[in-house]
Design brief:
384 residues, 11 helices, rod-shaped
């Protein structure tokens, strides 16, 4: 494939990926517009929404959270959970009703408000009274749920007479019950005919916030349902509990490897610099082998001695023909060397070179001593 064609494909793929990531981030991070949210939603700031009630609970220190799960999938500890179904937009299914009643029986407190609320407690339609106006209702009997709220306003357009046999009326008038409570197992079920007390437009009226606080309990987790308002979990929140993140990680790794291989194949090719056939180490080994085969340890001593004397002459400024004692004295005066040791080493080297009968072990020790002194002379004289 031509190089320019590959670049075009890469640019197109990168552009599409950027658009997809940007769209996903916008969907996940941007909340829906308040105008399109249904009544009772804790996200809605409209008159019929419940954002004010939700934020008030947060401000008061309650552990309040939004739930985007259906009742059958709700993961919560019933004994420490309060579920608020604020004006759900659909009737509960049989599975929803059974799951909710099991949750209440295990110790949860559930508040359901609005026309579809009764379907979570009983199978039957609400009676549409065709009355959207709010009316005042007084408490019918003293109860912890009515403390501080003797009178409330409620939209009584959707009544549920079928709940009267199981729910104890708390608010109502003229035979109409608009608020009822029932003990189911270890938990409590509370029904409101309307969502008026916790609407944004009515939460500040006398008794309304008190009515909500009587339902909630400090220390418990309050789950404000948004699933039955049409809000579902985002794709990301669903995918993070599946193997998809690992799949994407593996795909990313494969992509990186493929990109590296492609870049390596398309990169320019440079010739490798040929290495010298004879390296310094090979030279040393070769010279050592020659000395060993020739059995001339004295030559190695002479070579090391000649180098050491040249270094001493350069460092002291003396002539190369100067005697050992003169070189040692001059080096001791200018360099950090022991004159006695230096003179002794030079004398031994002269004897070994002159007689030519130095043993290999003695020659090796002597050469090492001279190399050590030469290294110190190099350091002291600034040679490299």
């Amino acid at each position: 494939m031509p190089l320019f064609r590959s670049r075009e494909i890469a640019v197109a793929v990168a552009g599409l990926s950027f658009v997809a990531v940007l769209s996903a981030a916008t969907t996940i991070l941007s909340p829906p517009a308040s105008e399109s949210l249904p009544p009772g939603s804790s996200l809605s700031k409209g008159p019929a929404g419940s954002a004010a009630a939700y934020r008030t609970l947060q401000a008061l220190g309650y552990d309040v959270r939004r739930s985007f799960e259906p009742m059958a999938s709700l993961q919560a500890n019933p004994a420490s959970t309060v579920v608020i179904l604020a004006q759900p937009q659909q009737d509960a299914s049989v599975g929803d009703r059974r799951a909710l009643q099991s949750l209440i029986s295990a110790g949860a407190t559930v508040l359901a408000t609005g026309c579809h609320a009764g379907s979570f407690f009983a199978d039957g339609p609400a009676i549409d009274m065709r009355d959207d106006a709010s009316h005042s209702f007084s408490a019918l009997r003293p109860s912890p749920l009515t403390a501080g709220a003797q009178t409330i306003s409620m939209d009584g357009g959707c009544l549920r007479p079928d709940l009267s046999s199981r729910f104890l009326p708390l608010y109502g008038s003229e035979g109409k019950s608009v608020v009822g409570v029932s003990r189911i197992g270890n938990g409590t079920a509370i029904w409101w005919a309307g969502n008026t007390p916790i609407d944004n437009s009515a939460i500040d009226r006398s008794g309304h916030l008190e009515l909500l606080l009587n339902v909630t309990t400090p220390g418990k987790t309050i789950l404000w349902d948004e699933f039955y308002h049409g809000q579902r979990r985002s794709l990301y929140s669903y995918a993070k509990h599946t193997p998809l993140p690992w799949l994407f990680a593996q795909l990313a790794l494969v992509s990186v490897v493929a990109a590296a291989m492609y870049a390596r194949r398309q990169a320019p090719v440079f010739e490798r610099t040929p290495e010298a056939r004879v390296s310094p180490l090979e030279f040393v080994e070769t010279m050592g082998g020659l000395y060993a085969r020739a059995d001339t340890a004295a030559d190695a001593v002479a070579t090391a001695r000649g180098r050491l004397k040249r270094l001493l002459a350069d460092a002291t400024g003396m002539a190369p023909s100067a005697g050992n004692e003169q070189l040692a004295a001059g080096a001791a005066a200018r360099l950090r060397v022991d004159a006695t040791e230096l003179a002794t080493v030079l004398a031994a080297a002269d004897d070994g070179s002159r007689h030519g009968a130095t043993e290999p072990a003695e020659a090796l020790a002597l050469v090492r001593r001279m190399q050590t002194i030469a290294a110190s002379v190099d350091r002291a004289g600034g040679r490299t």
